[in-house]
Amino acid sequence: MNVTADALPPATAARPPARTYLAALKLTGFRNYAALSLDLDERSVVLTGPNGAGKTNLLEAVSFLSPGRGLRHAELAEVAQRPGDGGFAVAVRLVNAAGTVEIGTGVVAGEGGPESHRRVRVNHAPARSTEALLEHLRVLWLTPAMDGLFTGPASERRRFLDRSVLAFDRRHGTRFNAFEKAMRGRNRVLAEPSPDPAWLTAIETEMAELAVAIAAARREWAGLIAGFIAEGYAGGASPFPAADIALAGDLEHDLEGRPAAEVEKRYAGQLASGRPRDAAAGRTLLGPHLSDLVVRHRPKQMPAESCSTGEQKALLIGLVLAQAGLVARLTGETPLILLDEIAAHLDSLRRGALFEVLQELGAQVFMTGTDEGAFAPLGGRAQRLSVSDGRILEAEAAGR
Q1: CA distances from 238 to 17, 86, 198, 355, 357 (A)
Q2: Distance of CA 118 to the CA centre of its chain
Q3: Which of 46, 80, 129, 306 is most buried, by CB atoms within 10 Å?
Q4: pTM of the entire structure?
């Protein structure tokens, strides 16, 4: 199912997006950082050092300024420094269109051990959930683990898809979590010797409402990103090719020709009629948890999974850059962008092109690498830091 945008807010040259950036970062008990305090400016940040020094750990800490489990999709217990009490903290001073915001997140350890969820504080006041972070900034990332996005399991593409949607719809993550909770409840009821039909109907009605909202949000994002790419903000003559986006999923397909209420009723009916099948399988075999993101290399008109490794990398970079541009367009503020080992597998032409596109976006970008020379084209446009065993030193002061 291909989706195109019916309407996309026009770019306004007179009103560029406001720059969002970290002016300070503090870590406590995070991975290999027992304690770290960094003063930053609005420039991008280049982190260089040997493998295992803690470069990716710092990027992961910044990724915790968004809902979810960060760029490694790690359990909270994995993030806390070992040995330790299981607690950790990430605190930043953020500058955005509204001014300066103090944000902190982490896990508090007590006598009974660390908490099972992370807390968020904004300007020293507790927030109700991690969704509050989306009121102040958006964080996007690209890591080497994502290089197999197009050839790996559909679950990884769904995660990419839903994180992209979350940048525009702050309730998307909550809806999906609620859907999965209801689905697990349904699976447990189906496993009982005599499942209660009334209870199953109630659960399936809730699942249908949530599932259609999830599918609709995905369709909206797909339409927006397709429209943005069509305008030529990604791909074209750039070394990073444009992507054609499609969604593969029964609900997403049904929403193309039916009103949401009808799709909800249809899906609830499918769940009811599929109870024997799902009970035998031990899981729900129809729903948004099985949808997929389908990407094609537009210039070559080729499925992404059939492209070479280099073409897939370039296509993924182009897609992330398009997402960053769309976030800036629709929110009026630049996102933070985290690029782990981004220069390692790019030739000098593509590295230079990437740095120029990032400069045009105006976003603060955190980049890591082992070779400081790969970032030479940035000159004084980036703050350069050297990472060694959980310690960070200023590597370069030019351009101040």
Answers
A1: 22, 45, 57, 12, 9
A2: 18
A3: 46
A4: 0.92
